[in-house]
Amino acid sequence: MATTTIGDILKGKYPAKANARKVADWIIKSGGNKDGLLYLEAQKLKYNEDNDQECAFRQRRFFFYLSGCELPDCYLTYHMATDKLTLFLPPIDADDVVWSGLPLSPEQALEQYDVDEAYYSDRVNPSLAASDIPTTVHAIDKQISDHITFLNFKEKNFALLKPAVEICRVIKSDYEIALIKHANLVSTEAHVAVMRAVKSATNERELEGIFLKECIARGCRNQAYSSIVASGTSAATLHYVKNNAFLSEKLNLLLDAGAELACYASDITRTFPISGTFSKESREIYDIVLQMQLECIDMLKEGIIWDDVHAHAHRIAITGLLKLGILKGDPEDIFKSRTSVAFFPHGLGHYLGMDTHDSGGNANYSDEDSMFRYLRVRGTLPAGSVITVEPGIYFCEFIIEPALKDPVKSKFIDADVLKKYWEVGGVRIEDNVLVTKDGHTNLTPTPKKVADMEKIMNG
Q: Where in this chain does the entry annotate a coiled-coil region (predicted)?
């Protein structure tokens, strides 16, 4: 029996129509009018101040989810009752054609996108004023152009469409999963290229350049987020983005970088030795973090409570740091005192999709419990969701020093042993994992076993 490949899936169209139906169903179940019209606008093409250079374009995720279209200045409607999805394209501008060529035509759009009708955007307002328009229009507040009029609609609802898309995005279709898989494959090649180059490179920016080159060469020009290329103690800064420091006399490199394909992200972190071989202390911390990640991934399946997985990561960290002597005392007392948060301050992971930190996680950043405050996903994980698993242990003076002065937490930290580990900086390992009914599928093939990474780095 033939196996369906990523390439086979991506030969088809992005499932915009299926996504529109999901969103419409959610709106109806949430009390919305069945006789409704969904209205969305693409991001506008913008220019930098004081010159005629275009800003970098990034499509609105809400628009893309119901269109699969990355073009600026477009519009979209979906009639919930008739199941008709219509895309409106920028009209031909003779002056612009001289510089940029002909825009996409309606006929080409019908071939390329999963829509029923395609027109130029001068027909948007007439279509919204037609005699057969639905009773209610659903749109997103502050994403409606001034020239657009909803006068003919009896009801205007700006409250349901945004959360509908955010929640529906959590469970991915096969097409979306294929996009994320492909982005992971491209990012893996780029991570491996950096591993090969790290021993001969002199500066973080060289390695960032190598990563970008490999992604662009493989068809992923956009990055899902700004790369983190952190050497030495800079790896203790969670979102370090300077990427301009020299590598000499530093132990490790933390590379957190991921390509984006058709608006879908990858998000991968690897930590490896700049010399090609881990120092004793670095290897000890790496082994703990790898155990944290592997055990947490093994826990994943439909219905698992993400808070519990996150707490399990902390317990593994505590056990490992106790064995090294960095922590001391009873492990349960350490856990209850939240002392481990000084070494693992962030959440275990987040949903991944059209955004690196994707929607639908129900985070609670006002949580008074420091262990869960920065957890971007709360509650149970559904089958079909893609989540990152990215535990870490960091030696950040800004976070640990207050713990050393705290009358409760300081009792559990051995400051003398700790001194041997400051130069490790930070270790984080991150994969993208698909949650299934009975388990999970790891979408990230990037090497992370020590022997595999050292073999790559040492030729």
A: none
Question: What is the pTM (predicted TM-score) of this model?
Answer: 0.96
Architecture of domain 174-458: Alpha-Beta Complex (3.90)
Residue 94 CB partners (closer than 8 Å, separation 6+):
none
* Nearest alpha carbon to residue 310 among 256, 365, 378: 378
Q: Which residues pair with 138 in a beta bridge?
A: 38, 157
CATH of domain 6-170: 3.40.350.10
Determine phi and psi for 184, rounding to 5 degrees. Answer: -65, -40
Distance CA 269, CA 391 (A): 10
Q: Are 191 and 23 in contact (CB under 8 A)?
A: no
* Helix, coil or strand: residue 430: strand
- At residue 413, the 3 state secondary structure works out as strand
Give pLDDT tens digits for 203-216.
999 999 999 999 99
Q: For 2, which DSSP code? A: P
What is the C-alpha separation between 449 and 429, in angstroms, rounded? 11
Q: What is the pLDDT of residues 131-150, one digit of tens each?
A: 788 999 999 999 999 999 99
CA dihedral defined by 358, 359, 361, 362, rounded to 10 degrees? 150
